[in-house]
Amino acid sequence: MSTRIATGGRLLNKSKAVSFSFNGKQLRGYQGDTLASALLANDQMLVGRSFKYHRPRGIVAAGPEEPNALMNLGRGGQFEPNQRATTTELFDGLEAASQNHWPSLEFDVGAINTHLSRFLPAGFYYKMFIHPRPFWKHVYEPIIRHSAGLGKAPKDRDDDTYEHFHAFCDVLVIGGGVAGLEAARTAALSGAKVILLEQTAHWGGRAPVDGGSVEGKSITDHVDTLVAELAVMDNVQMRRRTMGAGVYDHGYVLGYESLKDHAPKTKGPRHRLWRIRAGHIITATGAIERPLSFAGNDIPGVMLAAAVRDYLVNFGVSVGDRTVVVTNNDDAYRTAIALVEAGLTVPAILDARVLPVDSPLMARAKELGIRVMMGHAIASVKGGKRVTSVAVCSQAGEGAALETIECDAVAMSGGWSPVVHLWSHCGGKLVWDSALASFRPDVDNAPTGADGHGFVTAAGAAAGFFGLDDILHDAHAAADGVVTTLGFKLPASATSPNAARQEESPLAPVWMMPQGANAKLREKTWLDYQNDVKVSDVRLAAQEGFVSVEHTKRYTTLGMATDQGKLSNINGLATLAGALDADIPTVGTTTFRPPYHPISLGAIGGEARGDVFQPLRRTPLHDWHDVNGAEWEPVGQWRRPYAYKRSGESTHDAVMREVANTRDKMGLLDASTLGKIIVKGPDAGKFLDMLYTKMMSSLKPGKCRYGLMCSENGFLIDDGVVARIDDDTFLCHTTTGGADRIHQHMEEWLQTEWWDFKVYVANVTEQYAQIAVVGPNARKCLEKLGGMDVSKDALGFMEWVDGELGGFKCRIYRISFSGELSYEIAVDAGLGQAFWDALMVAGNDLGVMPYGTECLHILRAEKGFIMIGDETDGTVIPQDLGLNWAISKKKEDYLGKRAQERSHMVDPTRWKLVGLETTDGSVLPDGAYAVGEGKNENDQRNMIGRVTSTYHSPTLGKGIAMGLVLHGPDRMGEVLDFPGTDGKTYSAKIVDPVFYDKEGEKQNV
Amino acid sequence: MLILTCPNCGVTAEETEFHAHGEAHLTRFGPGASDDDFENYLFMRDNPKGVHFERWRHVYGCGKWFHAARDTVTLEMFGTYTAQTSTVPQDIIDKIAERRPEWHPPEGA
Amino acid sequence: MSEPISALNGAAYKDGIVEITALDPVGMITLRGDLGAGYLKKPLKKITGVDMPEVRGIKLNQDQGIAWMSPDELLVICPHADVATHLETLNNAIGSNHAMSVNVSDARAVFRLRGKHIREVLAKLAPVDTSPGAFEPGTIRRSRLAQVPAAFWMVDAETAQLVCFRSVAQYVFDLLKTAAQPGSEVNHYRR
Fold it and tell me: Left, alpha or beta for A478 (phi > 0: left; psi -120 to 50: alpha)?
């Protein structure tokens, strides 16, 4: 059984007990434990069920490479699935539950799959569920959906907050082990600005577990000294619990800081996403131990040899009383030695190698009385929910058992793979290192940055160096090289520390154990624990013709689980290479993509949730609208009142009331969102002549003119009223959505094409609250406010004037988008609310009511005024809308003119704007198409037009619409059919689009 | 995510402060242009694998347009320069030639 | 006559790691033209008491000053009540020269950030190096604050001011509050 032993546990605070629960059971651990170490201390080796076969699975590793120990953590708004027990720091009250089993972890019905595994090989789903087709939707998919997935999806809204942080440095060191610390120290001594990130809560990486000495000091003392030295350097920033998640273009790195996962009750954000821009990145990310491929290597109790050592040294946990060590390298001997020195039993070390002489580690193991069996291997592991014994065989043979050794744990080591993920994310290349039997960074092919030179350097174990002395020297040299290229200089006094060297015998690559394992053994030999991929699956894929490693990955799902194959990749591709009879470097690796380890979606979103998910733009009158019944309509990022509902009214009622009132008495519209752009300079008129289809340079100061703007390919992009302020100055109104776009459009042409034009442009949209006072009583209302002459003679239709109304400095434009007598009045935004209040008071006995955007739409549609975005959709030219009167024939050029001469633009079959009136008074469905004679090549009825705007007009008491129709203006009076999506067909007569006051008498009074 | 230096305000910032606006140094064709010339101007764009000249705007900064020369494969930046020019400045051409000896400047540059 | 009000009318947040205050209306004039021209330099000095700022510079004299916005644009800062007079002074000086001055006071919202952690709060929201040395009083940085444009500068070691568009004042205030929430110290610039 696994248990806590009396000694050891260098990371524990044994004076501080912590209680937590696992599957509802109350357990105890210590401060400093991980969830994994605390579970093991409580003999909870079984922690989950595998994805496909629901096999019992135990903890394999001690770090982020762990494939099995995935937990549902927390509850309610703090629930989160798929959290690794090995990276979860224990805290008081932690609640964990295992995943992927039913009804319980101990007894799982799905485990039947393991007995069916012969029928569930690689590609099973692809092959099985293709036919018959209809079965997919109704039978296969629901069943697969039910059984798929690991953790549960959270049901509640996340209680926590998240944030981003932008940081900048010369040198970013990722990894706070001995290599990272040395690299950071070296870089910092040159004066460079250094950030050092460490994913765990502790500095030093695994060196303190592995031991050794530096300059005569113990490794722990060395680490403590280094950390203390760095902590007082002004140019160094150190972050623990912060993982380097991804390396991107031009030295951009995402760091993932966990602030509250280990202390959920503290205030502040849970995670912080560091957006770091570094001059150069040093990846001191260490290495990950590989499992060995033998039958039964997934039975709980089979663990990585270094993990067994970690639990012993760091957490004082013995994972078994009797541990068999199986290896192809020297490092696993450290585990055997540590176990025996702690008073535990190692019945044998099975070493697949056959070596002429013993290395010092091997000699030490033998000295301790451990039975070392060279050239031996595991034929199979026995046990169900826990290892009970191993059958021993010759590595060279086919698996005939020579003896059985009773044990309750197996510590395996297949060698170490440098963590090359961050090196590779942005294009760093790899080379195969046959001595390591692994890929390592190809120093001549680093990812390149903005200057075209490499911006990532690997250091220490991540670069393929494994002896402590080599690691320190490499890290020092790497940092020295990096700071030199950045233009810093290392002082002569800064030298690399030396560590005591320990000779090791070379590793022997072992991809299958035993070497000649038969099919039956291969079917029990796991490569990818989380996705249940076996040696037999990869061989089957090869046999079926999958020669590319990327295809094999997707076919078998090898390395596609949440651990992204940290343990399985090298073994998997070695297996594929073996099956293809190719060498490993030719087969290559799959692509390493960020993040290195899963990060929370909350961290990616950062602050952008709830109220600040996206900007919401408010006019100066927003609050008034809000308390006066406004139903909001999003218009871009603005919110505009759609209608103001009174108690007992439906939205439709409110709109109808607003239309009737505005036509009969008077309405107020908040038009502040309309764009207002000042264009000034001696060439302003010439410039506007190029932007608008109509002549603007001929406009007289004091007058207004309606204008259309087209893009260079002829399509209508915006419209609005232009006012000439003085000889040099114009004010251009744009649509609500157009203000920023048209401002940019103007600047673009001025800066990139006509930079010789003497014109300045300023977007003053938000400087003003602009209020439309509309209706027969509008003038009376303004006269009540008093202060200036607003009579027809003083201020005619399409004129503007500056003045003062009721004490408010303002500019009044006599323009109308409703067909009524109308004044649009601009006051400074800071006075907008006060001015609106004054209008409401003055208009009180004149029948004033505010109106919203839907009323505005109906008023303009009754008048046949087009609306950008309704009558236009990016494919419509002004000529389609019958707006030829707004296009100058005199001008040689304007944006869009040449395009409007293109053959398709002058095609007489282009659909043209008409009015539509339903024959029964009902309202045409928005966007409905008119159908004509015959069918097209897809056997659909030919379409001859479509509805662009449609409303019920309370003024006319019937449905009115505008639409684009083939030969429309020539077909007045014709009735068209518009099939609706409701099964009904609507009939509408083609009419003039101006439904109301065709002579324009009402607006011109 | 790229970093760019705006030649107008001198700020070096990440890509999110900027907006890309497509190929640089187009010649405008207007009324009187042939159908072919106008079609080329309106629609045809180079999409080279390698050296490319682009228009960018420092949209969240000084608001000004500028030109950038960069490698579309390696993302190497050769330099940024004023938008008020219809040709590539000589110092940019020299920089590219130094980094990409096999590259030839476009016609008219 | 009514008094002008700012978008958030003096809202403040005092519970976080930085104190955030929405300032009362501030006078602001956008000036575009040839920044080297005497007809701009002279009246500006008269109005604000400061010289023309360097590229990306901001020169302040109490509640007035000049900020460099782009090679042909300045932002003149002054008391809100003085804007009309200053515009007149500027326009008279400009005369028939090609330049433009417009009142943008009410189109903006101004926030004051105060406290030890102002650099951090800004760096949470803007992709800008706000570390000591890289960002100091005298510089104005135009950038984005999360999803909207903003400009900010430091007044002294523990005070910064930030300008954004009026319509997004509430969004920016909410952003700043989130970034300054209790317990969110980064302590990145501790030394």
Answer: alpha
